[in-house]
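# step 3/5: fold
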Amino acid sequence: MNGQKKLVCVEAGLGITEGQEFPVLGENGSAWEILLGGEYRKVNKRSGRVQGWKTGPRFEDGHR
């Protein structure tokens, strides 16, 4: 069992399908950092949305 945290897409959008998993590369108090579409993106822990995006996929912690 590896301890790497993953985010799971729970609301599809912008070519990302529901259930798709993304490894968490970094984390701070309010955001996770993932590699999305070839770019590093921050995902808000509270909303599950990519910071700065009005629409698109929503994520949750895969280790619930």
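# step 4/5: annotate
The mean pLDDT is 90.
# step 5/5: archive (pending)
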